[in-house]
Specification:
Layout lengths: L6 H20 L12 H17 L7 H22 L7 H19 L5 H8 L6
């Protein structure tokens, strides 16, 4: 994989996504925006999106570490929700949905979607020579 010309931007966007997921899962429940989706679907989609995003920035050899980090992130969120006292609770079915989202994203990444950033930069002439 060639070095990404726009790597700093891709990483900043990725960490903004992580911050948004963290904020949305740790704020008091009355402040949570209602997306009109099932809670488990929201967890699946959030972790699926994070998995796909970061798989585009990493080498294939790092996908397992990415998956483990995102699974740990989801578990940490559930533990934090159980300890906070803001009316949130640790629901391990949410964590299962996180894990399934990560697994689906990593599977797609291994099938070739993981190189999205390189493909995007090359397609739009943004890659380094």
């Amino acid at each position: 994989m060639k070095k990404l010309a726009w790597a700093p931007l891709w990483w900043v966007i990725g960490f903004a996504m992580i911050s948004l997921v963290l904020w949305g899962t740790l704020i008091p429940p009355q402040m949570v925006p209602h997306l009109h989706l099932n809670d488990k679907v929201e967890h699946f989609l959030a972790h699926f999106g994070l998995g796909l995003w970061f798989s585009g920035l990493l080498l294939r050899s790092n996908y397992l570490w990415l998956a483990l980090a995102l699974v740990a992130f989801g578990g940490g969120i559930e533990i934090a929700q159980g300890l906070m006292g803001f009316g949130r609770d640790a629901d391990w079915y949410d964590w299962y949905a996180d894990c399934f989202g990560v697994a689906a994203a990593i599977a797609l990444a291994y099938l070739g979607v993981g190189g999205w950033a390189t493909t995007l930069e090359r397609s739009f002439g943004l890659a380094r020579a």
